[in-house]
Amino acid sequence: MVNRTNEMHNRGEETEHLLQLLDKDENLDGEALGRLLAEQRLDKLKLIAENTIDVICLHHPADGRYLYASPSTERIMGYTSENLKGKVPYDFVHTDHHSLLLKNISTSTEGLTCSPDKLELKFKTKHNGYQWFEGYTKPIFDKKDKVVLVLSCTRNIQDRKMAEMEKKEREVIQQNLLLSSILLEKKKAIVQKIENKILEVEPDLRKELRSVLSYIQETLNLDEDWEDFMVHFRKIHPDFYGKVMERYPDLSKKDMKHLAFIKLGMTSAEVAKTMIIKKESLRVLRSRLKKKLKLDPSQDLVAFVQGF
């Protein structure tokens, strides 16, 4: 949320000048406002610089030293022009990104590009530590095509970057969950087959074979695998199980597992493969599940689960 109080305290000279002019007539239409901007002695570039969401700076072409920083710098990064005097970008950019910055500045100071590439760098702000910024540098030439200044324009992208990283992490976790769920169901199927075979042998041999089966189950760590699955599932869907169990406390563990697979976005074919059942059996299973959830036959189970 935008902090209006801070914005009011950080207004620049030209912004205050404009507001004083507007106070004289609060009902200006579009044309009247345009005339006011054209006729009054307003430094429009400074007005823009005070209110832009970008940080605009001028640097010495030799070493990148800060020569000018737009008034917006203090609002966005916490630094005044005085704070930046004598400093270079390397004083603020995270060391992991120095090589990237060096290449960009070298290209600009040597005048090798007129269509700059955007960079994403972690920049140390005055009050909030390192934050992600996106920006570019552009050389300014004199009449002899010599670089006399380097302009930089950067914008805070911390929220966007965090959202991207979280999305990527969720995708990785989701993919791992899909793989682990398939492996878990295959392990269970193997155990079930062995148990069925044990029932076919003579009764006096079953006890010894069951002890072997118990050892196999311990080795496969089925319960631990399921718990591990749940830990990762809750990372990307922290409230899902709580909400479902609150509304439908009588659902079985198998039902909850089925719902988890749907929530992960698995297709019907993937769910059937994971649960090691035929597609026809899956349809029957889903029909029963819809009844437990008190859904109409026409309701889409997948859409219902994704809505949680």
Short description:
This protein has helices at about 5-10, 15-25, 30-40, 45-50, 70-75, 80-85, 100-110, 160-200, 205-220, 220-235, 240-245, 255-265, 270-275, 280-290, 300-305, and strands at about 55-60, 65-70, 120-125, 130-140, 145-155. It has about 300 residues and is an alpha+beta fold. It folds into 3 domains: about 1-50, no CATH class; about 50-155, PAS domain (Beta-Lactamase, 2-Layer Sandwich); about 160-305, no CATH class.
Describe what this molecule looks like in 3D:
The chain is α+β, with helices and mostly antiparallel strands and 308 residues long. Helices cover 58% and strands 12% of the residues. The chain has helices at residues 4-9, 13-24, 30-39, 44-51, 72-77, 81-84, 98-109, 158-198, 203-220, 222-236, 240-247, 253-263, 268-275, 279-292, 301-306, and strands at 54-59, 66-69, 119-124, 130-141, 147-156. A 5-stranded antiparallel β-sheet has the order 2-1-5-4-3, with helices on both faces. A hairpin with a 5-residue loop joins strand 4 and strand 5. Helix 8 (158-198) packs antiparallel against helix 9. It is elongated, with a radius of gyration of 32 Å. The two termini are 27 Å apart. 15% of the residues are buried.
**How many strands in all?**
5
Beta-strand content = 5-15%
**Strand ordering within the main sheet:** 2-1-5-4-3
Gyration radius, rounded: 32 Å
Structural class: alpha+beta
Average the pLDDT over all residues and give the rounded result: 80
Shape: elongated
- Summarize the helix and strand pattern as letters: HHHHEEHHHEEEHHHHHHHH
Q: Ranges with pLDDT <50 over ≥5 residues?
A: 4-9
Tally of alpha and pi helices? 15
Main pleated-sheet profile: 5 strands, antiparallel
The CA-CA distance between the termini, in Å, is 27 Å
Number of domains: 3
Approximately how much helix is present in the residues? Answer: 55-70%
